[in-house]
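job 3f2a | input accepted
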Amino acid sequence: MNASALEAYYNKFNEDHRLTTRHGIVEYTTTMKYIHDYLPARSQARIVDIGAGTGRYSIALAEAGHSVTAVEPVARNLAVLRSKHAPVNTWQGNALDLHFLDDDTFDAALLFGPLYHLHSEQERLKAFSEASRVTKKGGIIFAAYVMNEYSILTYCFKQNHIQECMTQGSITKDFHTVENDDQLYSYLRLEDINTLNSKTGLERIKIIAADGPADYMRQTLNAMDDAAFQLFLDYQLATCERPELLGASSHTVDILRNTK
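job 3f2a | predicted structure (260 res):
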């Protein structure tokens, strides 16, 4: 993970705005539905949001009555989160080193940003190891990924970079993005996630398409009236577990049980 590049990107990127757009609302609504499905059956859970950004999930979960700790590496994002004066305990830090958090503390851990930016299996396994360490046995870890086919379809074909990418060797002959520390994002296929998951020692409960086709349909979603958009949300929630839709989603969320 290139920390300086990450900082520069998020200093310009409006993370607060993304999840309030219509395609962002699809991702947020779907993800929150599953978080609530798997939180412990009591009024207050202890949750750590690792890579919390500006606090979209942290603040909502705190306002729902949970005890939330947010960890964020980017100073600007953390300042925005803290400026909201929400009841969230905050730390500046990254997913690879959570030494400031105690073992076996949390009922659930969110990894909704870190795995987008880690480019080696070693780093990804370290992030899972740290999340597992601070999560109680039987606790739930939610891990989000950006998907390979989304990148190929949007950046390579829709934005017409395909020949450039093939010439540079940044994608393989079977159209898989090549890992590179100079890239900001990391793009995986389902088989990559499955291989990684098999090495974490965690037990998959299920994997979902967090936003399904929404990111491909931004203009269409923006043009919908409220009733049509609600039906699209209903469609997304009804289909987000369907295996034939997972790999082409912009984001997936792997829902895992800590079995240590």
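job 3f2a | Strands lie at 46-50, 67-72, 88-92, 106-111, 135-147, 187-188, 203-209, 251-257.
job 3f2a | closed
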